[in-house]
Structure formats: structure tokens, C-alpha cells
Amino acid sequence: MKSSNNIIQFPATQPDCVLCGSKEVTTREEEISFPMSNRGKEETLHIDIPVHQCKECDFEFTGPDAAKLQHDAVCRFLNVMTPSEVREIREKSGLTQSKFAEVTGIGIASINRWEKGGVIQNPAMDNFLFLTGIPENLNALSTRRQKSSNVISFKQKFPAIEGDVNKINEKRKLFKLQG
Question: What is the pLDDT of residues 149-162, one digit of tens each?
């Protein structure tokens, strides 16, 4: 990425041609530019991506590496963690996605999408994820979640909602405010 101090390297994988299937494919680095805007801040991002060209049919294409580089550049522009950084925080804690979701209260689908780059977390969730990377914070959340499992369920606290709906509606019709 030219607009950042971060150095981005991409793997030197040599895919087969997606059009004709040939293994005779070359890869070159090409700069792409695209505009981004966030909270009044506008910038054109410039990143180098791998572009593959088939020697047989002359077809040019990009692959998942290029998409990942573009996604990471957008994350950096938005000042949020990249998918690999989100995954690293969870993995350093030694938790599976399921257990991390349980401890943090974040939906497992969201964690999965953030780690795979399907969507980008908002800044508030990014800050929360960052804080979970501090072991003391994750331990405090775990303890807090264990204590909250002792909460009285809604049905236990409000038994009047259980029962025959018709009877409840009859009582509702009889109710009048005094005043």
C-alpha cells in the first residue's frame, strides 16, 4: 500500500488459468487505486496486487490474495484490525470461536465473518476486540459471564404471562386506570 507505512507482501502462489486451465501462468505486481471515504476523511488508496496472466490464452485475472490485500488496506484506512489480527487475538487467548463468542457475548457468526474478511467490524467492536486481547480483560469478562448465568429467567420473574391467553385478555379488558 503506497499511502501507508505498512509493508504488504503477498504469497507467490502460481494458480492455474481460471479460463483455460493452463498451468502456464505468470504473475506480476500491479498497482490499483480506489477511493475511500470515512467520516469526512477521503483518500485514494493505492495498493500493489498480484495479477496473473495466462501464456496460453492471454487471460488476466486476480485471485483471493488480491482481495485480501484490498480488504486489509480498507481496514487500515478505517483504523480497525484486519481479519488476521482479529483471529490472532482470539487464538492467543486459546479459545475456539464458539468459546470466544460465549465469553464475549459476540455472535459466533460475526466472529467468523470478521476473521474470514466477509465484513469489517465497526470501530466500537474493534475496540472491544482489542481489549479482549488483554488477558485480564478476557478473564474479567469470563467471570462476569459466569455470574450472569444465575439470572432469573423471564418466565420465573413474571409468571402472569404464562397460562391461557384468553383469560389474560379477559383480565386486560377489565383493567382500568384510576384517576
Answer: 554 444 444 555 55
Dihedral sign (CA 93, 99, 103, 106): positive
> Which pTM value belongs to this model?
0.72
Instruction: Reply yes or no on domain 83-148 having CATH 1.10.260.
Output: yes
Task: Look up residue 146 and give its three cell numbers.
Answer: 459466569
Helices (H), 79-164: 83-92, 97-104, 108-116, 123-132, 135-148, 154-157
Q: What type of residue sits at position 16?
A: D
Instruction: Specify the CATH architecture of the domain 1-78.
Output: Roll (3.10)
Which residues in the chain come in under a pLDDT of 50? Answer: 1-8, 10, 151-157
- Domain boundaries along the sequence of the chain: 1-78, 83-148
